[in-house]
TrEMBL record:
<dbReference type="GO" id="GO:0070072">
    <property type="term" value="P:vacuolar proton-transporting V-type ATPase complex assembly"/>
</dbReference>
<feature type="coiled-coil region">
    <location>
        <begin position="7"/>
        <end position="34"/>
    </location>
</feature>
<protein>
    <recommendedName>
        <fullName>Vacuolar ATPase assembly protein VMA22</fullName>
    </recommendedName>
</protein>
<dbReference type="GO" id="GO:0005764">
    <property type="term" value="C:lysosome"/>
</dbReference>
<dbReference type="GO" id="GO:0051082">
    <property type="term" value="F:unfolded protein binding"/>
</dbReference>
<keyword id="KW-0175">Coiled coil</keyword>
<comment type="function">
    <text>Accessory component of the proton-transporting vacuolar (V)-ATPase protein pump involved in intracellular iron homeostasis. In aerobic conditions, required for intracellular iron homeostasis, thus triggering the activity of Fe(2+) prolyl hydroxylase (PHD) enzymes, and leading to HIF1A hydroxylation and subsequent proteasomal degradation. Necessary for endolysosomal acidification and lysosomal degradation. May be involved in Golgi homeostasis.</text>
</comment>
<dbReference type="Pfam" id="PF21730">
    <property type="entry name" value="Vma22_CCDC115"/>
</dbReference>
<dbReference type="GO" id="GO:0005768">
    <property type="term" value="C:endosome"/>
</dbReference>
<dbReference type="GO" id="GO:0030137">
    <property type="term" value="C:COPI-coated vesicle"/>
</dbReference>
<keyword id="KW-0968">Cytoplasmic vesicle</keyword>
<dbReference type="GO" id="GO:0005793">
    <property type="term" value="C:endoplasmic reticulum-Golgi intermediate compartment"/>
</dbReference>
<keyword id="KW-0458">Lysosome</keyword>
<keyword id="KW-0256">Endoplasmic reticulum</keyword>
<feature type="region of interest" description="Disordered">
    <location>
        <begin position="94"/>
        <end position="114"/>
    </location>
</feature>
<keyword id="KW-0967">Endosome</keyword>
<dbReference type="InterPro" id="IPR040357">
    <property type="entry name" value="Vma22/CCDC115"/>
</dbReference>
Length: 180
């Protein structure tokens, strides 16, 4: 590879790296804002409901995660992270139940026991009518989780870009030392 081509590739990689760093900084600021907003909303909910009404004693004994973090590796070796929210029912499970419910004067069937626990909103642990600030806190923390997954993927891309940048700089130094 010639030195001008190498310099052009180095420049484009450096520009991409700077764009990724700028995006990472923006996501960090957004994450900090979401977390701050979530804690503020949570404190408002505690004030509205009472300090002992919103706390660890109200958590369910068997908590199930509402979100899972998945990862995949792309062709170039970079990992990507994203959040998966498992749905309460898959489309295959909805079909037969709907058919049974639509037959009003046919065979009466006993309801099938569910093979998995239905996902419930954790806000219901704190009562039926929870304050809006508690819902805002939940939404803020969910957005923060999404931002954290995006930031992790972006950080891996930045680290990869830095290593590529160092490799290209070494190649350029070798080419310049050979030609001098």
């Amino acid at each position: 590879m010639a030195a001008p081509d190498l310099r052009a590739e180095l420049d484009s990689l450096l520009l991409q790296l700077l764009q990724d760093l700028e995006e990472l900084e923006a996501k960090r600021a957004a994450l900090n804002a979401r977390v701050e907003e979530g804690w503020l909303s949570l404190s408002q909910a505690r004030y509205a409901m009472g300090a002992k009404s919103v706390g660890p004693l109200q958590y369910a004994s068997r908590m199930e995660p509402q979100v899972r973090v998945c990862t995949s590796e792309a062709q170039d070796g970079l990992q990507a992270f994203w959040l998966v929210r498992p749905s309460a029912q898959t489309p295959e499970e909805v079909g037969p139940r709907e058919a049974a419910l639509r037959r009003r004067k046919g065979l009466t069937r006993t309801p099938e026991p569910e093979s998995f626990p239905a996902l419930r909103d954790p806000l219901n642990w704190f009562g039926i009518l929870v304050p809006h600030s508690l819902r805002q806190a939940q939404a803020s923390f969910r957005e923060g989780l999404q931002l954290a997954a995006d930031m992790a993927s972006l950080q891996i891309r930045i680290d990869w870009g830095r290593s590529q940048l160092r490799g290209l700089q070494e190649k350029l130094k070798q080419l310049e030392s050979e030609s001098a």
